[in-house]
Amino acid sequence: MTPLLEIKNAVKTIYNDDDNLNILNNINLTIKPKDFVVVLGTNGAGKSTLLDAITGTNELTSGKILLNGKDITDENLAKRSRHISRVYQDPKSGTAPRMTVAENLLLAKRRGLPRRLHLRHLKENMPEFKELISNLPTLDNRLNTFTEKLSGGQRQTLSFLMAIIQKPELLLLDEHTAALDPQTSKDLMELTNKVILEKELTCMMITHDLSDAMKYGNRLLVLKKGQIILDLNKTEKDKLKEKDLLQYF
Amino acid sequence: MNLIVSTISQGFIWSIMAIGLFITFRILDFPDMTVEGSFPLGAVTAVSLIQAGHSTLFSLLIAFVFGCLAGFATAFLYAKLNVPILLAGILTMTAMYSINLRILGKANMSLTKPNNIFNQFGLDKLPTNFNGIVLGVIVITVIIFLLIIFLNTEKGQAVIATGDNETMAASLGINTTVMKFIGLMVSNGIVALTGGLIAQQNGFADVNMGIGVIVIGLSAIIIGEVIYPDVPLSVRLITIVIGSIVYRLILMIVLQLGFNTNDLKLISAIILALCLALPTIREQFLKTMRNGVKTK
């Protein structure tokens, strides 16, 4: 089976006058389709930089990134967004505040496609959007609400829906529940897991929550100082206890 | 009565400029100083072309195109060369001064040709100053209609998204650089078109006539927002027209009270400052009132 994502010898260096720092230090990683990879690591371990490199937000200093066997290292953010979607930690990062929930969803529905001089057909898409939020009490009847009026949890749920409304080949979740209260975080995490399994998405999820790391996903990575220091499959992961993970921090 | 009609007429015409400014100030969410250069650019272009024997409509079309080019220059500095937007606008505005002088050949020029857009197409048959109102309403209707259509296209939505949250827009594959070019070009095109209209209404063009236009445009936008907060984007465009008329009426009242016309720009700035501070003043007032009630 062709790997969905291959990262080969990825290095990201920050050049300082007195000291150069490798944020990513020769990372090699292969992710198969339908993998749900949970990524752990201390602050500054290189987790978000790795996602930045995958989405094209931040270029690698050296190394290659292949998606479905195709080298995308030199493709820009817009081109990669056709295949890759991302949810950020900050609920404000993923939505347009002065646009309604429905308008945000419509924007996301054309993720990666050229924006034409055609009318946007909001009304025609409303039934689909209603269906999408029908089982989400927090967003029910909120399609015409301006996003700036939503709570952090509602906005982050919307960000997540925007990321999956057009099935991405790769879904990247960058601590997407970290800024939420415990209950909202739990609800969103359960929704995330349900959608990933139902839609058979391939996903990389960064988290600092060890219990979430143990509970979700079929693979566990731990990053430290820009290197992968632990890579466990589902069976290996299941044998692990939460407290065992602490030694890697 | 004639004074009020004249003031309303000015409010309508100047609101076109404010609508142009709205594209950058509210939709793209940054202040664009280019307008102080593109406004006189439109004026000098229109007057030069009319004086050279071209039609008034053609002169306005070229004024619009030149305004778009001024917007392009700022967009290039800002979106391609990463010059901060405020500085990019100031650079273009400064450069426009020399370009405007080149176009006009001197610092100011009167329209000596008998025809201008305000006395053509039957507008001359209207009572005094009503030609400005009728022309203003026609131009505003066309511009607002086209803008609403554009903003409801996929591209228009992408422009709004770029101003609203650039990180999100980029992650959805929207080319935010192109959207900034579109916004700045259309905005300055409309502002230059207004410059062309005002020059024809006043009967002259002056390279210095752009000084302070950003304050006039912002006042119209802010007054509209203060009077009608929380309205959809399409309605907001109409509130700018109302804001512009109210602003002109306030100025007229102030001048009628005996203030010196030399203080016009100072008064304009004070009106804008008051409008900008109004939400904070209102909030503080309500807070004081609530605390007062609690104490009692």
UniProtKB/TrEMBL annotation, chain A:
Which parts of the sequence belong to the ABC transporter domain?
A: 5-248
| PANTHER family, per database record | ABC TRANSPORTER DOMAIN-CONTAINING PROTEIN, IMPORT ATP-BINDING PROTEIN
Q: Which keywords does this Swiss-Prot/TrEMBL entry list?
A: ATP-binding, Nucleotide-binding
Query: Does the keyword Phosphoprotein belong to this entry?
Result: no
What the entry lists under SUPFAM superfamilies is as follows:
P-loop containing nucleoside triphosphate hydrolases (SSF52540)
Protein name, UniProt field: ATP-binding cassette domain-containing protein
- Can you list the GO cellular component terms from the UniProt entry? plasma membrane
Query: One MF term from GO for this chain?
Result: ATP binding
**PROSITE patterns assigned:** ABC_TRANSPORTER_2
Keyword match rRNA-binding: no
UniProtKB/TrEMBL annotation, chain B:
Record membrane topology: Multi-pass membrane protein
Q: Which domain of life is it from?
A: Bacteria
What stretches pass through the bilayer?
Answer: 12-28, 57-78, 85-104, 130-151, 181-201, 207-228, 235-258, 264-281
Cellular compartment(s) = Cell membrane
Keywords tagged on the record:
Cell membrane, Membrane, Transmembrane, Transmembrane helix
Q: Does the keyword Transmembrane helix apply?
A: yes
Task: Quote the InterPro entries the UniProt record gives.
Answer: ABC_transp_permease (IPR001851)
User: Quick check: keyword Cell membrane in the entry?
Assistant: yes
List GO terms (cellular component aspect). Answer: plasma membrane
Q: Which GO terms describe its molecular function?
A: transmembrane transporter activity
Q: What is its main location?
A: membrane
Report the PANTHER family cross-referenced here: ABC TRANSPORTER PERMEASE PROTEIN YPHD-RELATED-RELATED (PTHR32196), BRANCHED-CHAIN AMINO ACID TRANSPORT SYSTEM, PERMEASE PROTEIN (PTHR32196:SF69)
Supply the name of the protein. ABC transporter permease
Organism per entry: Companilactobacillus suantsaicola
